[in-house]
Amino acid sequence: MSTMNTQSAPLIEVQDVSKSFGSVVALKDISMKVNAGEVMCLLGDNGAGKSTLIKILSGVHRPSDGHYMVEGKEARFSSPRDALSAGIATVFQDLAMIPLMGISRNFFLGSEPTKGWGPFSRFDKKFADRVTREELARIGIQIRDTGQAVGTLSGGERQSVAIARAVYFGAKVLILDEPTAALGVKEAGIVLRYIAQARARGLGVIFITHNPHHAYPIGDHFTLLNRGRSLGTFAKSEISREELTSMMAGGEELETLSHELAEFARTDAIAGASLAEVAREFEVEAESLEEAASDHQATVDRVPTDGQ
Ligand SMILES: Nc1ncnc2c1ncn2[C@@H]1O[C@H](COP(=O)(O)OP(=O)(O)OP(=O)(O)O)[C@@H](O)[C@H]1O
Ligand SMILES: [Mg+2]
Prior knowledge:
43% of the residues lie in helices and 22% in strands. The radius of gyration is 29 Å and the shape is globular. β1 (12-21) and β2 form a beta hairpin. The protein has two domains: 2-240, P-loop containing nucleotide triphosphate hydrolases (Rossmann fold, 3-Layer(aba) Sandwich), CATH 3.40.50.300; 250-308. The strands form three sheets. Strands 6-9-10-3-11-12 form a six-stranded mixed beta sheet, with helices on both faces. Strands 2-1-4-5 form a four-stranded antiparallel beta sheet, with helices on one face. The chain has helices at 50-57, 80-85, 103-107, 125-138, 155-168, 185-200, 212-218, 241-249, 251-302, and strands at 12-21, 24-34, 38-44, 65-70, 73-74, 88-91, 114-115, 122-123, 173-177, 204-209, 221-226, 229-235. It is of the alpha/beta class. The protein has nine helices and twelve strands. It binds adenosine-5'-triphosphate (ATP) and magnesium ion. Adenosine-5'-triphosphate binds at residues 21, 24, 26, 44, 46-52.
């Protein structure tokens, strides 16, 4: 094995990165890194700065201050394309897929393989279908029809296609912005499994989520953001799921929340009481209805039937 320094440099590292939009400070002095074969979870509430940070990593924004290094070298990306060619693939929440087009067309979107030359060159469907099928099989998805419209896949399957695509095109770092946010428990589990597989193949993964229950089982390190600042980075051995959850909620916010919940319970109790009243009124009505019904029955009973 080589003893070169770059061998041990993290795939991605930011040091004291800040980002302002006019007077809005979206990020202040954030440091984090991700190594090959590691899942780094970026956690934080709405507006914490998660998307802003990954937009810096993926070349959408330049940091206002601080350093951004890729494999030990200062990165100067001026577009997502620059980041992608450095091996940093980002799967944004809207996924940049075309719902009406098939799986293999979407898999190769923007990098279409062709056959033939000049005016006769056309999409090499056979190649695209084969690679798509193979790459998805590699992560455990068997597809029957590579022409199936992506729009008819489940949310989890769509995420999986996007992940498989990034891996196939040689990503070293995979950045996933809330890939499990819109998914049910089972589908989220499937996406978490693909994240584990990407890690096993030696990629560094940055997994953004609101949900500590999704992050904890899969993460090696956790960075928590709160209103643009870091609450710290923890290795899994340094933090329990409960601690992670309570840090996410934040002591202060939790207190506000419990006040709100108490208030809700109070108004709910009022609502409950008035409901009970309605129910009681209904009961009265039901009673009189019942009475009316039995009166009616009695009348019917008194009427002699023909032939008896
Ligand atoms: N282009 C921009 N111009 C001005 N303010 C911005 C811009 N982008 C982000 N912000 C602000 O920066 C802060 C952080 O936003 P960001 O989108 O990074 O949060 P987030 O953690 O991704 O939140 P969410 O969980 O809701 O996606 C917010 O206050 C937001 O309004
Ligand atoms: Mg966001």
